[in-house]
Fold this protein.
Amino acid sequence: TIGLEDVEEALQRRIVRYDKAGDQHYDVISAFIKSLRGSDPDAAAYWLQLMLEAGEDPEFIARRMIVFASEDVGLADSRALGVAIAAADALAYVGIPEAGY
């Protein structure tokens, strides 16, 4: 049975609505990339945190950031691709959960 204490505890938890196998997976990564493209760090941080809390693969996010740095930033700032690749390398080297710190 579910008691009052169980309900109160459940209400304290944040529910993350995210479907890694469906359209929402692509909608959220698209919103993240659009936030980066629009130079909106608060929105980018929001979408990034939502993906990570929902259990998205950090390597998928890193790959998308490399693509963004290459295609969207390009020659406007040639350092962007190096930074994105370095972040992906660091993720691969230290792994999860250490890469989150």
Notes: The chain has two domains: 18-55, 57-101. DSSP finds five helices and no strands in the chain.
